Amino acid sequence: MKLKDVMTTDVECCEPSASAAEIAGKMRDQNVGSIPVCENEKLLGLVSDRDIVIRCVAENAIDASAEHVMSTEMVTGHSDMSAEEASDLMAKHQIRRLPIVEDGRLAGMVALGDLSVTNAADEKAGLSSEEERFALPFYWCNLFSCK
């Protein structure tokens, strides 16, 4: 399955000038752990709940802007990437959210939860195929009296 089939496309972004308090409010309202920072649809960075705790709360700088709080070294994916590739990439870099970028523009986001649904469906499909493979010889033996 491709990421374009499971990614969230209506991603709420913030501008570089947004305050950490505004971003935290967006995270709360949308029940997400990170907000992309974009300018003219171009992904500049990502502000995570951890970024806010470490760079704002711990430093007593809750009014700091997104451009001062965001992480700019990001791992990104593309919409034609397979769910398995994305899962491997996220595990390798120990990240829970993967921005999907097309032509330098943010196209969507994929979270681990999106991939776990895909993996569960793949596993179920795999089990069905395996069950069919083992059931087939028994079916033929019943038909043709194999011993």
Automatic annotation (TrEMBL):
Q: Which UniProt keywords apply?
A: CBS domain
Q: SUPFAM superfamilies from the entry?
A: CBS-domain pair (SSF54631)
Q: Which Pfam families match?
A: CBS
PROSITE patterns for the chain = CBS (PS51371)
Q: CBS domain location, by residue? A: 7-62, 70-126
PANTHER family in the record:
CBS DOMAIN-CONTAINING PROTEIN, CBS DOMAIN-CONTAINING PROTEIN CBSX3, MITOCHONDRIAL
Q: What is this protein called?
A: CBS domain-containing protein
